[in-house]
Known about the structure:
- This protein is mainly α.
- It is 87% helix and 0% strand.
- The chain is built from 20 helices and no strands.
- It has helices at 2-33, 37-74, 77-104, 106-113, 119-132, 135-151, 156-160, 162-179, 181-205, 219-249, 256-292, 295-322, 324-332, 339-354, 356-371, 376-400, 402-428, 433-465, 469-493, 499-511.
- Helix 2 (37-74) runs antiparallel to helix 3 (77-104).
Amino acid sequence: MSKVVKYAASLMAVTIVAKVVGFAREQVLSYAYGASMYTDIYIMAMNIPNVIFAAIGAALSTTFIPIYCDINENQGEKEAKKFTNNILTIVLIMCLIIVILGLIFTKPMLKVFAFGFSGQTLSIAMDFTRILIGSIVFIGIANVLTSYLQVKNNFTIPGLISLPQNIIVITAIIISIKYGPYAMVWGTLIGMSMQVLFQLPFAYKEGYKIKPYLNLKDESLKKMLILTGPVLIGVAVHQVNTMIDKSIASTLGEGAISALNFADRLNSFVLALFITSIAAVIYPMLSKLSTSKNKEVFEEYIVKSSNSIILLVMPVAVGAIILAKPIVKLLFERGAFDDTATKMTSIALVMYSIGLVGYGLRDIINKVFYSLQDTKTPMIYGVIAMGLNIIFNIVLSRFMGHAGLALGTSLSAIICTILLYINLGKKIGNFGQINIIKTFIKSLAASIIMGIITKYVYNYIDAMVGVSLINSIISLGSSVLIGAIVYAAIIIILKVDEVSMIKDIIKQKFNK
């Protein structure tokens, strides 16, 4: 697992930097516009290109890596790069077609993504969407470049692509305060282009040169398309769930979309820091192990990666539930983001955090199935999760408003993850499920104890130091630090095997 530790530590380190800047972007947005109509419209307009292409991009990257490796090994690097250019050309053509259709059918598209928008809100949303729909081209090219760099074991640069993008977006939001919200939208489009411009020099350094090339009869392309279909549907489920959440939220009054977005951003930080880092690094290794038929080591990777996610994410999830309001207040409550927005975002954060471990384990288990060249199983259970999410959303939103949407998303993710692990056991037999269950129980128990102590410490310090920005940082920081020490001590006492791996990751980060 030494390579996993090394690469995961590097990716986590750069992710922290990128996500801190990402948080700064959300704080600037919340300061400038709060949980308002313009924030709702802007978030929705940004969400549309991601929903449309993110599933395609993720499916391409999932199937590209093993096929590129196969071509490179059997036919040579020259053919592998030709295959890359073929994929890039096809993706570019697809993106241009999507952009043209988006410009023509903007209004019907918005009625799907935000059927609660009407009047002036709908009119402005159409303008924002027509500007940002062009970002699909940059998203598409960036996905191919990211996959190429990852296959070359370069995880750092793809992890940093949001950094220059967010710096430009932050600047645009600040400018828009004086010159109007359209400046923010155009700035966001320019920022999206940086995903491509930032990666290109490093792809060139790895020996890749972009050359227009199109061969629809390529056998490797046909193989990739066969694998991509189920992956596309499976990955699209998450995007569709996001679309459903925001569509229903658009009917729940002003600020509902914004509250869900800000809460989701906080959880996304944890997902990107721990889950995405481990999943991105472990996938190529799982693919090689499944091909070499090394069952024992393959199963070890499943257990180690699953338990690492549980141990890292469980305390964060419980901490977010316990300290949701002070976290949101510290990070966002200033400018136009008032106490009402804090309350709305806090309850959404609590509900999203319930499913945080489920989201993480689902990403890992999906990678396991993909490495086994089984793309149908994640697709099937992804569709089931989508159906459950729709049902939960409709029912829970009637009683809990936007909080019900967040809870519905969490419940569907948990159920889907459990079903996937059960199915994997049926597919490959015993792979150490009992070890994962034991670690889950130990981590949950430790996190609950940690949560109780953390809440008590926070209340005590907060009452003692009073209300101010510095005092809020002291109260929250002190309680989180004590909680982390308590959790670590309990986990060590319980002798969880993966503690040593996590220690190695932390050492690697500090060494860097």
